[in-house]
Amino acid sequence: MSAHRLPLVTLAAFMLVTLTACSQDSGPTLTAPDAYARAQAGTLTLIDIRHPDEWRQTGVAKGALRIDMTDTQGEAGFVQRVATKMGDGKNAPIGLLSLGGNRAANAQKVLREAGFTQVYNVKEGMDGSSAGPGWIARGLPMQPCADC
Description:
Layout: H1 6-23, E1 29-30, H2 32-41, E2 45-48, H3 52-58, E3 60-61, E4 65-66, H4 74-85, E5 94-97, H5 102-113, E6 119-122, E7 142-143
Parallel strand pairs: 1-6, 2-4, 2-5, 5-6
Antiparallel strand pairs: 3-7
């Protein structure tokens, strides 16, 4: 292969790896209104995985559990806290909320790998993303987080 074609091949390989990595599906998604409707119907447990300072700034989605996805014991600690809150029910539907859906996608992957079977990413998150305007902009119910 000629030396002047090597950078082009390298760039093409990088783009292929990047596109493949970005397109990997971590699991099913829900819009914020769908997640809220399911939570109100009792068919989904909402979990807000943001940090306490974020909860204090915006409040928390009405009825959502607060489980910060960061833990001193890493992913295993997060999984254990979710399992405890869910009563070890790994088949119960869970909807994960983060700021814009990215952290929820990561947490969704971690929970699915731990055996949880119905984990949904509320992909537009609280503040919105390319998936939608977000929980707050949609005017969905919030509750203050005075004890965060």
